Amino acid sequence: MNKTLPILTATLAWLLAAFFLFGAYGNTFLSEENAAAYAAWGYPGWFHYVTAALELAAALLLLRAITRPVGAGLGAMVMAAAVLTTLVNADYDHSTAPSVVLLVSLTVLGLSLFVRRANA
To answer: What's the pLDDT tens digit per position in 31-43?
Structure first.
């Protein structure tokens, strides 16, 4: 197999991991604006910690090729929930970023599985 695809997959995965790591930090140390958004969406005051833990887990799982599909899948689920939350609450200004990250997560998931299968 050409080495370009595994390198591209790893690069996208590491960038995605960095995004989720920053997201985990931002959800652990929540700004007043984001706390207000969580409250407006109907989530309890502690829910941002759940989001932070899931984002941190996704970030760590994305770093290694063996766990990358699980990390990408977990990240996709977190982002799908974020997209759904913003759309259900008609908060369209906040739906673009999670939509893009959802697409990247699904891309990394597909590429990771393809590379794994090609190397088997």
So the answer is: 999 999 999 999 9
Give me the residue spans of the domains in the chain: 4-119
This model's pTM is above 0.85: yes
For residue range 16-73, list pLDDT tens digits in order. 999 999 999 999 999 999 999 999 999 999 999 999 999 999 999 999 999 999 999 9
Question: d(Cα 31, Cα 8) in Å, to the nearest integer?
Answer: 34
How many other CB atoms are found less than 10 A from the CB of residue 22? 12
The residues near 111 (Cβ < 8 Å, ≥ 6 apart) are: 5, 8, 9, 12
Amino acid at 2: N
* CA torsion through residues 41, 43, 46, 50, sign: negative
Write phi, then psi, for 11 (nearest 5 degrees): -65, -50
Helices (H), the chain: 4-28, 32-40, 47-62, 68-88, 96-119
**What is the distance of C-alpha 97 from the center of its chain?**
10
Q: Which amino acid is at 120?
A: A
